[in-house]
Amino acid sequence: MDGVIVDSMPYHFIAWYEALRPWGVRVSCFEVYAQEGERWETTLKGLLKRQNIKPTRKLLKAIFDLRQKIFKRYFKRYIFPGAGRLLAELKGRGLMLGLVTGSPLNEIQRILPVNLRRLFDVIIAGNQVKNGKPHPEPYLKAARSLGFKPEACLVIENAPFGIISAKKAGMECIAVSTSLPAEYLSGADMIVDCLDRISARISS
Fold first, then answer.
1. How far is residue 24's CA from residue 70's CA, in Å, rounded to a whole number?
2. Which of 13, 76, 133, 168 has most Cβ atoms within 10 angstroms of its Cβ?
3. What is the CATH number of domain 9-74?
4. Sign of the Cα pseudo-torsion (149, 182, 4, 9, in order)
5. Residue (of 30, 162, 8, 10) closest to 80 by Cα position
6. How many C-beta neighbours within 10 Å does residue 50 have?
7. Whole-angstrom distance, CA of residue 132 vs CA of residue 114
8. Angle at CA 178, nearest 5°, toward 173 and 180?
9. Over the stretch 3-61, which tens digit does the pLDDT of each residue have?
């Protein structure tokens, strides 16, 4: 969802940056983008530990609650050009669609427009798996829910952790360089610069 369908990554960075600042933690845009798709608890624990701050449950909740408030304050929904068109086309060709994201289910419902959300046969949210990306569990769960073997699935990703997750799951992966330059997406089978270049690659 984030960085592939919805251009939300800049807002995620702002939210993490502002939420961590009161605790003296500085986070770069690259750090947030590179770890995109990971469960928020894992990301936050890692950021705190790098600053030698003990990630207690109380502290994690306080920072995450603040992050959510900041994100809601700044977020403006912008759907990437071609996203809706691509999803509708694939759905019209009889393909089954799964959305796999590190975002919690309530955030998906708030960010993703209903008309796009309804195109997905399966949605796997970050709070519906034990292990987030780069672990293969999210994509394997999506494949099982769709009723397909992993090798029959194609993943569209925008972040290194998502690509690793897809490849560990045994799936082909196309990366779109909407968040990070192509050199950070080299683990994918194919890299494109926009969603419009994906349709021709997918056959029914």
1. 17
2. 133
3. 1.10.150.240
4. positive
5. 8
6. 11
7. 24
8. 85
9. 999 999 999 999 999 999 999 999 999 889 988 888 888 889 999 998 999 999 999 99
- DSSP strands (E only) in 35-171: 98-100, 122-124, 154-157
Give domain limits for the chain.
9-74, 83-201
Its pTM stands at 0.90
Could you tell me the two tokens for 153? 């699935």
Strand partners of residue 124 = 100
Asked if residues 201 and 176 have their Cβ atoms less than 8 Å apart, the reply is no
CA distances from 139 to 56, 74, 125 (A): 29, 30, 11
- Cβ–Cβ < 8 Å for 35, 43: yes
Distances (CA, A) of 82 to 65, 98, 196, 197, 198: 33, 17, 6, 9, 10
The residue among 165, 111, 163, 109 whose CA lies nearest residue 139 is 165
Task: Write the CATH number of the domain with boundaries 83-201.
Answer: 3.40.50.1000
